[in-house]
Amino acid sequence: MFGYDWPRLHAALNDLPAALLLVSVVFDLAGLRRPSLRTAGYWTLMAGAVGGILAVLSGLQAEEHIAHGEAVHRVMETHEQLALITLGVFAVVALWRLVRESRMGGGERGLVVALSLGGLGVLLTTAVYGGRLVFDHAAGIPTDVLQTEMHERSEGHHHGADDHDHAASPMTDSMVPPGAAPDSTKPAGHTHAPGTPPHKD
């Protein structure tokens, strides 16, 4: 994949590992009291770590193919550094558990969970900066597409008259104000011209 495909690929790859790593920490916390949940935490951690590698690699390539100015560059650099720290923390946790999972004592396991919580905090901050790139700076959107969108927004969006105008319809029982009984003595469709004296039908 080349050019603009890298930002698209990064956008497709970065959500799933983040979700898996978040869930792995939740399972590990619960596993401190219910050991049966540790297995779920272990495998979601491994899947999230592998997915994190793919997300970071695609992000590094996307950086080279996104047109950007100085403001975007600063945010992008911070996002990149945080992503590398996140990957480093969870890679250490994954390797630690890969080697020690079956032999961990309570204190060691608590230390691993504490490290995972720290990694989770960095992960969430990474996501915040990634959101800033897209929503505050429109990073990853080609300049010509952005210019076209700005032009269309300046013209506004107009609905046709039929979208908002509705033909008047006769009042039905469902339109009677709450608490008022419908007038069943007046035949449907029977009206009198203004000023016509009352008469019996």
In short:
With 201 residues, the chain is an all-alpha fold. Helices cover 63% and strands 0% of the residues.
- Radius of gyration, whole Å: 31 Å
Largest sheet: none
According to CATH, the fold-level topology of the domain at 5-139 is Four Helix Bundle (Hemerythrin (Met), subunit A)
Helix and strand content put the structural class at: mainly alpha
By oligomeric state, this entry counts as: single chain
The SSE string, one letter per element, is: HHHHHH
Q: What proportion strand? A: under 5%
Q: What are the segments in which pLDDT stays under 50 over at least 5 consecutive residues?
A: 165-169
Task: Tell me what the structure shows.
Helices cover 63% and strands 0% of the residues. The chain is mainly alpha-helical and 201 residues long. It contains six helices and no strands. It has a domain at 5-139: Four Helix Bundle (Hemerythrin (Met), subunit A).
List the helices and strands and how they pair.
Blueprint: H1 5-13, H2 15-31, H3 38-64, H4 70-100, H5 106-135, H6 143-155
Annotation keywords:
extended; mainly alpha; 201 residues; 0% strand; Four Helix Bundle (Hemerythrin (Met), subunit A)
